Amino acid sequence: MHIHLDLVGGISGDMFIGALLDCFPEQREGLAEIIEAAGFADLVDLHHEVTGDGVLTGTHFKVMAGATAEGHDHRHYSDIKQKISDSALDSFTKDVALGIFQLIAEAEAKVHGKDIDQVAFHEVGAWDSIADIVCAASLISSVGVSSWSVHSLPLGRGQVEAAHGRLPVPAPATSLLLEGFEFYDDGIEGERITPTGAAILKYLAPVPGIPEGVKLNCSGYGFGTKKFTGISNVLRMLVFGTDQDIGWDSDQVLALEFEVDDQTAEELAAALEKTRAMEGVIDVIQSVVFAKKGRQSTSIRVLARPAIERELTEYCFNVTSTLGIRRRLTTRSILRRSEFTVSHEGKDYRVKVAMRPGGLTAKVEMDDLPVDTDVRQLLEALALKKYREDNE
Q1: Is the model's pTM score more than 0.85?
Q2: Which CATH number does 249-333 carry?
């Protein structure tokens, strides 16, 4: 499943949740259990209702502070992290919620020049905002989306009231979170993207385009509270899928390509090894080519997640001698796979099982095999047997 986000009015935590609930109404009843598992049942109340503005109809979701919620609206990142980690939430929801909060904390730490654990959230620290992120995390982990996309984002104009006083739109932390995204200015005053909305976008790492071979299943609208002149304040969600399970998944990857002919082999090898180790880089491929004047050169292709395009391009310019980098976004098909640990004669071996259209295949991690061994076929057979037993 692929979801495209269309920021008609903008995006906030409640707009994101409202749009998801509009597309997946069966998820509505489960949110109360999520809030209880998080330990917020006495602190917040959830409200969601079908609403409209005379032009569009969708879902308006709102978290209201409960009667027992504390009066102050600021909490330290370390306290929020501890509360979520200690909660009864499932591990997937915990991971997503902590990931979103960490992104906000990193941005706030940079804005205020503090260590991340010293960051105190203000607006995002209120119980209703914390519950927004937990609910969003639960939906992200449960609806089964394999990829997300978004086009350019509305910039907004003017200033917004915050705990630190009046801030320009987009707010400083929001701007940091959205570095690398494309924007447009439609001339409409007001904050269009909240810090929570920006953190959700950053976490999802959406690509610019919709994958090939998918069909539109449904659409939904999440309404915001603010009113804008001449435009519906909604986040539109387009849900895409395929008619049937084709046996593999699809996503989009970034390909950066360039040539180097004036850097020593030793320096280039070290640079590419560091590039390969970057978070978000999938692979680095190099080959020998002949360039202008018949000079032998190295052609390099770096495959990576689209979200790190700017960071990766800057890094390649800094660690190699290239003067130009070509870039393209491409769709790839990915076989579903599982990794198992198989024990044999007191030693553990990692084995990958791939689900190919013609059947299952297994391959032992070569780094785990001794140089002189003939147990490879046995280990792969054991892994296939384990996979079949686990999936009966």
Answers
A1: no
A2: 3.30.70.1380
